[in-house]
Amino acid sequence: MTETLPDRVARFFGPAETPGLAVSGGGDSVALLCLAVEAGLRPAAVTVDHGLRPEAAAEADWVASLCDRLGVRHTILRWQGWDRSGNLQDEARRARLRLIADWAKVQGLSTVALAHTRDDQAETVLMRMARRGGVDGLSAMSARRQHLGVTWARPLLDTGRQDLRDWLRARGQDWIEDPSNEALRFDRVKARRALTALAPLGITAPVLADIARQMQSVRKTLELKTTEVARAALRADRGDVLLLPAVLAEPDEIARRLLLAAISFVAPSDYPPRSAPVLALLSALRQGQGATLAGCRFLRHGGVVRVTRELKAVGHAVAPGEVWDRRWCVFGPVRPGLEVRALGPLGLAQCPDWRAVGLPRPALLASPAVWSGDDLIAAPLARIEADWRAEPVRGAAELHLLPLSH
């Protein structure tokens, strides 16, 4: 018996699961909404109005009316944070995920479903090929992914875009066509056109999606092996990472992933460095050299490579108790005028016994300290403090799991 599209969606979720649905009003997301309802799920839907097109507000209201007719509770979220700088598409995507993740948590939803299709998967593979993506790039999008405290699910990754539109037409359900889907200034639209041109060679959406599935299997194997090595050869030490000699002895791809895990631990960022500079870093370390990359310093210290924060890359000052540099929380007797910022040369000069703590000078320079103007109040990593302590946001257990999530 052939599996129907509603059956495919129902199988993706547990019988008691209540998913959130991201619904823009386009054909893919409207199909996901209608399929979820026909599958017997009880979803909640959300639409993000980015405020970038005059029609956006009306489109969000159209989705709200559709959800009302289907008996699905619906929320409209509005993004107002763009300062007209940076990459608009990237900024909008990240803002959309943050808004939806926050909404899901308030709604008590652990999973949000996105309407990416097999065609989206194929377009993603093409775009990542253009960027020289390796195994991770060519594995494209996963069916499930943990991010921002939410599981992002893609139940339609094995379904073609045209299949969804045919299903909607058969039921007399319309949708909204976004004019930006034809704008050649966007890489995804170019990839869509390229797929049409490549079809006579047999390079089709199903073929590229199958390549992505194969690469996902390879990536999973690499991640499991990297995690095994990470447990044995990576050590967390007061916010830094120690790379034992076994790291540099691993094959390039495993060692590259271990370096990425160390970088992500010491200098959390939305995007990891690309493969080429990481492999150049690996080569330098194997030759016994120090190096800097992505806000980290790599130092030879005590027979291992210490990965520590680069002083010039640390975050701005915060109040005690807040997260500083995405790495530390400093606690103690708070009073007005105190702030946490890097210890730096000025602060280290006020810690004459800093060598006794066993950390190299560069690590201490970028360590958290409490200041009142130019007066050093506390340096928890550089000297003994009776009233102040610094706690890393991440621990060793998270370090060893990073190869599975980078």
Could you list some keywords that capture this structure?
42% helix, globular, single chain, 406 residues, six-stranded mixed β-sheet
Task: Describe the secondary structure blueprint for this structure.
Blueprint lengths: L4 H8 L7 E3 L4 H12 L5 E6 L6 H15 L2 E6 L9 H20 L3 E3 L4 H13 L4 H4 L5 E4 L2 E4 L7 H10 L16 H12 L6 H29 E4 L2 E4 L1 H5 L2 H15 L8 H12 L4 E3 L2 E6 L2 E6 L13 E2 L3 E4 L7 E4 L1 H5 L12 H5 L2 E5 L2 E4 L10 E4 L3 H6 L5
Parallel strand pairs: 1-2, 1-4, 2-3, 4-6
Antiparallel strand pairs: 5-6, 7-8, 8-11, 9-10, 10-11, 12-13, 13-17, 14-15, 15-16
**CATH architecture descriptor name of the largest domain:** 3-Layer(aba) Sandwich
CATH homologous superfamily grouping of the largest domain: HUPs
Specify the biggest β-sheet.
Answer: 6 strands, mixed
Distance between the termini: 40 Å
What does this structure look like?
Strands 3-2-1-4-6-5 form a 6-stranded mixed β-sheet, with helices on both faces. It has a 5-stranded antiparallel β-sheet with strand order 7-8-11-10-9. Strands 12-13-17 form a 3-stranded antiparallel β-sheet, with no helix packed on it. The longest helix has 29 residues, at 205-233. Strand 5 and strand 6 (150-153) form a beta hairpin. 42% of the residues lie in helices and 18% in strands. The protein is an alpha+beta fold. It has 3 domains: 5-211, HUPs (Rossmann fold, 3-Layer(aba) Sandwich), CATH 3.40.50; 219-308 and 397-404, no CATH class; 311-393, no CATH class. The radius of gyration is 25 Å and the shape is globular. The chain contains 15 helices and 17 strands.
